[in-house]
């Protein structure tokens, strides 16, 4: 037992000083302990707050000669405990016990709890001395304190159902047991020092959260809401799982379907052909459907840039930022599939500056997709027939250049490629124009590969009305002269600026080729060609092109020229036009010299009026369109 506990004499249950400090830093010092004179019940309960910022609290030196210093860490009034820390080991003197808590406590250099007593009196002796009795609270009681060897004294505690400080008046307060969860399985009623429970009325049940009896209907409602929320979350979770599984299943189905289409479209064979064929384009690639869906924003209708005879054309942007045109069939028929595959086979063997470049294809759809270089300026048909404004900026020089380039491309297909290729659908819609207005022949869906030793092939009739060769239509025998006839219709379009099937002044639909051949016999050319052509072209050029178109439109194929002859004639017309333009310019340059003026003092020359002026404008706009070979041929005809 600690020797700071004295005999029963000297205990004063009344605090003599008011406004006593009860904190040392974070340590609470309740009565009967104190920090100042008059604030504790006896001198041995007076503590010294040596450092409030560090919460350092110690008893005064109570151990005499031992020099022992006791540091207090906390005080528990109800349990009669003081957590202390000793500076010396004196465990054999420091063990105490009480009957209600007989555990042994051994002091050490660490913090340990120690029992204490207010006086070394028995409870009856203490109660007999009313002026010195420590348990002054009405709801307190005396409790004996025993050491391991003998009875030592007493201390105070609050009765059951009360809590607080039994050493001060009205210090033991009633404890509300109803605040403790599970106290009653019904309605809880708190009383002074205790409580009692009553069962809930019928059709009610105790709600522990509300601490009251609630209607079973309300409980059922709450339970139903809780169950509903739980079931709702469960359904949402189940639906999410089902949706994920369905998506995965659909994704697997799509993969299987794409593989099936790839096999049906002879993808493996095409891969082998592209990799093994020396004549196939090095850049021909087989694209995946996901690549093209991403390039066209899942084939957004706003990306449609054209509708051809064999499908729709979408504008797309590949992952490497290349702008491409993607042709997709709008009719799901086996013949369309064959035409798409045929077009890949044709274009993989073609490499010409005036033929649209095939970048690759996709075989993962029911109808294969074709991927081309994107041609920004549309088609010859679109420019010729869209409106008066757009066609007026399309000069005669442009017409000759595009006609010659398209003729050269067809000549290449007929005789310069590894195998003869008959286009079978030559028309102004299939002559595209790039950024420099260079002609690009396109749409080989109806084309046929023909061995070199064959002059014709028997096929099903296919083509576009207005351009279709009558001989091929009646006999079914396709040859290179069928493309010549169709090209003749294009030449007539350039001369007359009319559509292949147009509405006459009488309101009847009329065939352009028949109209042209009939009018040539009945009227002079100046009466039937377009006004713009009359303004820009010479009579000789008009006659040459018109005669060329007339021979191309002969009913018998053997009377038509070859595409080589057509190209040579158009190149000749262009060379003569270029030569005459340069001669006129040279004559204009000589005039100041003949008049005796110095060349250094000449004013800036203006363009000559009439035809030459239009030639200069066209040549400036198309200065990059002539090849070196064409310029050499033109300059070779000039006088030396």
UniProtKB/TrEMBL annotation:
GO molecular function (one): polysaccharide binding
UniProt keywords, alphabetically: ATP-binding, Disulfide bond, Glycoprotein, Kinase, Membrane, Nucleotide-binding, Serine/threonine-protein kinase, Signal, Transferase, Transmembrane, Transmembrane helix
Domain Protein kinase: 299-573
UniProt membrane topology term: Single-pass type I membrane protein
GO-annotated biological processes: cell surface receptor signaling pathway
UniProt: ATP binding residues: 328
Pfam family, one: GUB_WAK_bind
Cited SMART domains: EGF_CA, S_TKc
Subcellular location: Membrane
UniProt keyword annotation of Transmembrane helix present: yes
Residue ranges of the TM segments: 221-246
GO-annotated cellular components: plasma membrane
UniProt-listed PANTHER family: PROTEIN KINASE DOMAIN-CONTAINING PROTEIN, WALL-ASSOCIATED RECEPTOR KINASE-LIKE 21
Protein name: Protein kinase domain-containing protein
Species of origin: Hordeum vulgare subsp. vulgare
